[in-house]
Amino acid sequence: MSSPTIGKTESRDLRGWIDEVEKLGELKRINGADWDVEIGAITELGHHRGEQSKAILFDQIKGYPKGYRVLSNTLNTVKRIATTLHMDTNYTRLEFVKDIKRHITEVNYIKPEVVKDGPVMENVFAGKEIDMWKFPTPKWHELDGGRYIGTGSIDITVEPDEGWVNLGTYRVMIQNEDTLGFYISPGKQGRIMREKYFARGQSCKVAVSFGQDPLL
């Protein structure tokens, strides 16, 4: 049997990813769940189903209008991971591990393109317009200290000495309508950068992305 390999690699956003996994039968839609613990409980139950697990798309969440959605359990199965990586989905687990190891050693780096505008700037809110509570962020577990909008986010920081950019996945919690807090474990690049800024009496600027293609 020939080894499955990478297929299409055209640009894709999260909506495109949702469409792809739904066509594979890997998505379950749930309407009317409560952001307060219920979404977290359903997500946890689904997570432990192994290869039978589905990505879950919650809509019409209690207290929020239709279209304000939450996606969970994105990368629980070989099919969804392979789809995310633009790879063939006809894998056994062993075939997938072998092929991904090969691709990791053959990575072709793509030079970033700097642009002045893009779809991300279509809806801009500033100052008193900012309200993080407009997003149906779950309280995932009963004993959580608040409502966590990350770790499925990308937290972007810049190394203060060399200028390179780090993309990390850290726990991000909503503090109030215009303030987020995030925790970085010791030793992580984002924390090392932050400590450098703080040691100099400087603020550490962070850009956070929510709802991007799970590939990122």
Features:
globular, 216 residues, alpha+beta, three-stranded antiparallel beta sheet, disordered N terminus, 5 helices
Please characterize this protein's 3D structure.
This protein is of the alpha+beta class. It folds into two domains: 91 residues, no CATH class; 91 residues, no CATH class. It is built from five helices and nine strands; from the N terminus they run αβαββααβββββαβ. Strands 1-2-3 form a three-stranded mixed β-sheet. The protein is globular, with a radius of gyration of 19 Å. The N terminus is likely disordered.
Instruction: Report low-confidence residues grouped into runs of 5 or more.
Output: 1-5
**Element-by-element helix/strand order:** HEHEEHHEEEEEHE
Task: Tell me the helix content.
Answer: 10-25%
Integer tally of domains: 2
Structural class: alpha+beta
Q: State the end-to-end CA separation.
A: 30 Å
Task: Please give the largest β-sheet.
Answer: 3 strands, mixed
Q: How confident is the prediction overall: mean pLDDT? A: 92
